[in-house]
Amino acid sequence: MHISEGILPLKWAVLWYLVAIPFLAKGIADIKKKLVANPAFKVLLGLMGAVVFIISCMPVPVLTAGTCSHPCGTGISAILLGPIMSVFISSIALLLQALFLAHGGLTTLGADIVSMGIVGSFTGYFTFKLLRKFNLSLFISGFTAGLLADWLTYATTSFELSSALAGSKPMLPLFLSLLAAFIPTQLPLGILEGFLTGGMLVFINKRRPDILESLGVIARNPNSTCL
Amino acid sequence: MKLNIKKNIFFTVLFFLFLLLACNFAYAKWSGVDENVVEKVALEHGRPAWKPFINTDQGDLLLFAFLLAGVIGGFVLGYNWRRLFIEKSDLKK
């Protein structure tokens, strides 16, 4: 999913930065507001930041494909923090990876933020909300949110690459061939990400249901106290 | 307690079996999709990847960087995990 340094032509790199900047600005403003209202929120923010950073740079070997790739972690962070704050913590993770871990790049950071941060977070968040409206269980809603957040992140990377690299040729064949190249690795990893997301939600619901209630993830219990 | 130990042994054996299988897949190169798909397609279209501005991808330096990132990330995760799930009272207002 990380687009390496220098792969995108300048105009495309600038375009993806322009798409990402408003989300980042709103994310910073929201986090500031939330921390002023409740300083204890930074514990959850720190936890989710570490989760997204570690998950999104952890190469997982996929036996069926003989390659390695990583989940994204944006599904769970968007469900817990909301999509806008999730965009911000994803961009911090992506920036650190571009600077020190030779993953992604500074010129391609905007595109990476759009695919993993924006598309991943919004897909995870809205999928979860939609499925909960149909009264599906916490695990099934979380699983589907994590799965789709992962797959759509890689679909967006395919779109970003094909739109920038197709040149004068039609973009669709390149887009489809990129998608097909990602499928053997991301198909099982998306399922893994689904289990991670659903499992984390079920775990938190067992240990600290008050957190999920106060974040609006599950219906509020009048006796809830924290966050 | 006994059940937990059995469970831990089972998952440890399962993990090493997985590693054994993974390491012995003859055709597998275990390259990342970033390299295998993104950089490959970009190169085919005349856009080779540049070297990173801070190039840690040299010898064991990348291994060190990943280990350090894992340690720091793991510390932050563990610290906040402890505050959230062990010292529950900290968050109550």
Task: Give an account of the 3D structure.
The complex is a heterodimer of chains A (227) and B (93). Chain A is mostly helical and 227 residues long. In chain A, a hairpin with a 4-residue loop joins strand 1 and strand 2. Chain A is globular. In chain A, 73% of the residues lie in helices and 3% in strands. Chain A has a two-stranded antiparallel sheet with strand order 1-2. Chain A contains eight helices and two strands. Chain B is an all-alpha fold and 93 residues long. Chain B is 65% helix and 0% strand. The interface between A and B is large, with 58 and 50 residues.
The sequence of SSEs of chain B as H and E is HHH
Cα-based radius of gyration of chain A, to the nearest Å: 18 Å
Sheet with most strands of chain B: none
Q: C-alpha Rg of chain B, in Å?
A: 21 Å
Oligomer: heterodimer
Number of helices of chain A: 8
String of helices and strands of chain A: HHEEHHHHHH
Please give the alpha-carbon distance between the first and last residues of chain B.
Answer: 35 Å
Find the biggest chain interface. Answer: A-B, 58 and 50 residues
Q: Helix amount of chain B, in percent?
A: 55-70%
Instruction: Find the structural class of chain A using helix and strand composition.
Output: mainly alpha
Strand order of the largest sheet of chain A: 1-2
Please state the average pLDDT score of chain B: 83
Shape of chain B: extended
Helix content of chain A: over 70%
Mean pLDDT score of chain A: 92
What portion of residues of chain B belong to β-strands?
under 5%
